[in-house]
Sequence to fold (662 residues):
Amino acid sequence: MHLFDMNIQISVCALLCFVAHLPIANGSTKALEEMFERMTSDTLIFAKYLESLLLTQDARCSAIRDCSEANYDSCVSEFPSMECPGEDFSYPILSCGSSKEGGCGGFFDFTTSKVSLAPSIRTSLGEDEDSVNNVKDAVCWTLAAEEEMIRLYNEAKGYWDAFSVSPPVFFFGADNGVFRQYPATGDKSCDEGGYSSYDPRVRPWYVAGSSGPKDIILVLDTSGSMDQFLRMDKLKLAASRVISTLGISDYFAVVSFSQFATQLGTQDLRLSRATDDNKKVMLDNIDGLVPGGATQYHSGFSKAFDIFQESNADEVSTSCRQAILFVTDGAMGDGESDLYDMIDLERDKYTLNNKQPPAIFTYSFGDEAPERVPKELACRYGGVWSRISDKDNLAETMGGYYKYFSYGLGDERNEDFVAWVSPYVFANGESLGTTASAPVYDRSVEPPVLAGVVGFDFTLAAMERALGKESTESRNIVIEDIVKKSVARCPSFNLTDCQLESLRMYGTDSSGFTEAICQSCSSNIPFLESAPCSTDDLRNIELWNNANFRELSYEERVCCSVGESRVASVVESRIAGTSQVCKEDDASAIFYLGLGGALAAVIATCAGVVICKRRKKRKMMHDTTAGVFPSAPDLPPPIAIPVSWTAGHVETEHQQQAKFSF
Fold:
């Protein structure tokens, strides 16, 4: 990252700025802005429609009578009316082929949506009827949105046809891990038992849409006791989950501490932008952590506040909300009062500058982990304390930190909030695009609670065509606009004492964790979740229409001959073997995947133009947008966890999921 000095970096940056703003033949920045407005409007329309389904219990629960056997599992169900579109469809499946006439492509069903359940749902369900009914409730009330998905898709065809692209893919991720997408197509992220490994809540589009831009510092205990009970491996998985939720609009840092504290990846006390490259580098650094030494809380917090102070001074920050996520398994070996004095002093600096100090989340990890001081830190400094035993899922608990931000965004001041995900290569390996997302709240309760997040996928091709032509110059401008929009706005944040107590009470345990509350709410603590429909209504619901494809591979379920159509029926004998599946030579798919990768590399370089306009004194390694365009391995892709973290030690959520059927 330091191969060139700053003068050369700024010169290159200036050149990129010049190239990116060359005139576009017959271009129209007005048409591009109108397209962004259209995307924003459609995202909000869909989000508000979903909110309308939750306004009354009657409206929400009326869908139950139509829900039984009306849903299609993304891994095992055969869809009712499958079509194999050609290359004019903007989201081809290159695992099957190029979608050219006479070749192979992938099945889509434009008459229905598909549903998947996050692995943690199946892990936690067991025989708990309440948990089962909460899942059924989410699947059933979102089924009522399917008709609106189809209507919006068909209504949008005319607009997007003018740019020779397909309408966006619509999806909704519920706060309990239920995921619904239109149009329907089979998932690639399925295990041998036919269960999906996809969890919408850990995807950047979900966290960005529910929390907005933020600065996060993880402070991780690496003392000697973390060598017990596989705690270090579990800590690495948990840190990975948090980092993987971050998007281009966020900044982050990771601090490890024992008797001394170290900032991972760099020693210059600056946050880094959450680009794909920066996240991958940090995951590698986390993978290299080794336990040893004593437990000195002061060193970890002092380093975290130093990073915030230097980053704020140099504007290497979102300038939005900040938080510290502190994990420990041991009692502090330094002075408690000195720790509070230091934190109070650092927070006073924020107050003097009319800024909100960072919230502090604390996690007592391990059966023998101390509780009093971590809880006191959370209570004193506007955060949430969690207790995680050696048998509990640390990654699941830490991954829910975004609820703090989402709970404070539910008022009317944020009704028009839309988040933008940095441009990336779609799962097909050929199309470049972005995702716009917006939160969905249940406003039938007060205060409103997060129900989930909607997302729309859009191709860059349409945006380039709005500028007059597809070209490198057009793409540069489009990318710069998307990146700017992703970091353009800090949502209004308003979290009452009672809402904060609700997060403490119900944030990690829907039945209530009374030991985590701080006695700061003078009235009844509100529930964090909506009330589900009645058990009697849900008990007899069978969610899935069929499981005809449970024994088939991804290619057997999805690949088809371009132009082919199929109505659901008993699985045909012709797809009993992969040799009879329409699938082009691997070389064909590799060609397109390689092309997509090359394009991603080009736009990653060009996207650095944003730096030229803002905060030139920032160091390039922190603010650069290079590496912001990850190549998605599946649509939508699961998180990739380094193999070394799980081999022979800790099972991933995907491996742990229970074989529970509905």
